[in-house]
Amino acid sequence: MGIPLLLVLGGGAMLLTLDSVAGVLGALLCLVTVLFCVSFLVAATRRQFIVDDKGITIVRSFSTLRLRWEEIAVIEQDSGYWATGAVVVVLRHPPGTRVTAWPTSDRRALFRGENPFALGDPVTVLRPPARAAIDGHRRWLARRSG
Predict the structure, then answer these.
(1) Which is it for the CA torsion 99, 102, 107, 108, positive or negative?
(2) How confident is the model at residue 113, as a pLDDT?
């Protein structure tokens, strides 16, 4: 629904007459609004949680955090209200530092293509992102120990 409205707004900016100051200001206002909405949409949908053989990558709206397996002490799943189901990475140094991967919370389940009502209780059931992170960490620990 938002993208068709942006197209209408952008098309409306093209239809404004540029013969008057009001027409130019209206066109600029419409174009600035469209550019702001598109940039916000791109930034909001950039969030990712990637688990690979080298570690975990948390891509946020405006930054990327790369955590190698050597830096990670424990991987947990949050059961608090706001971050329910989110993967929490506890770092070795500084000890006890916790990094919450917001893209993995239950609030973002629909964006990941999951049914939020079928996930179960976060205290007893691990979410797919938490399972993937824990499995990747276990594989790294097994390779390291030989």
Answers:
(1) negative
(2) 84
The angle that helices 21-44 and 2-15 make with each other, rounded to 10 degrees, is: 160
State the greatest distance between any 2 C-alpha atoms of the chain, in Å, as a whole number.
76
Compute the radius of gyration of the chain from its Cα atoms.
22
DSSP string, 95-135: TT-EEEEGGGSGGGTTTTT--GGGS--TTTS--HHHHHHHH
Q: For residue 133, which of 59, 38, 58, 80 has the smallest C-alpha distance? A: 58
Low-confidence residues in the chain, pLDDT < 50? none
- Quote the pTM value: 0.73
C-alpha span between 14 and 31 (Å, rounded): 9
Name which of 124, 108, 131, 133 is nearest 44 in CA terms.
Answer: 108
Alpha-carbon distance of 9 to 2, in angstroms, equals 10
Q: What is the Cα–Cα distance from 71 to 94, expressed in whole angstroms?
A: 10
Long-range own/partner contacts, residues 28-33 (CB < 8 A, 24 or more apart): 33/9
- 10 Å CB burial of residue 95 (0-12, 13-18, 19+) is exposed
